[in-house]
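Structure ticket #2291
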Amino acid sequence: MKVYIGPDKDWFGPYQFADLFKYVGASESFRDRIAEALPLSPFQFFHDLFPRKVKVKIHDYDVWGADHTLAQIIHPVLVKLQSVKHGTSCGR
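Resolution: structure written out below.
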């Protein structure tokens, strides 16, 4: 099995847009309210123009023990997710 997932191509979303207001002296709570009020659809459109590179090649022997194969991939991802804590519910 070979899996390659490239990085996101310069994601620009509502929070990155709202951060532009810090240069004019807007408070952080004001920027948060702006970001939460903005619709995601225009940003998703730009994100779809530059998709991530994803290449997956599955061999026959990967399917025989698919539960074990997936466990070897999922476990390191979950360990890394717990250490990085990118979300609000991570590490509870």
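Closing remark: The mean pLDDT is 76.
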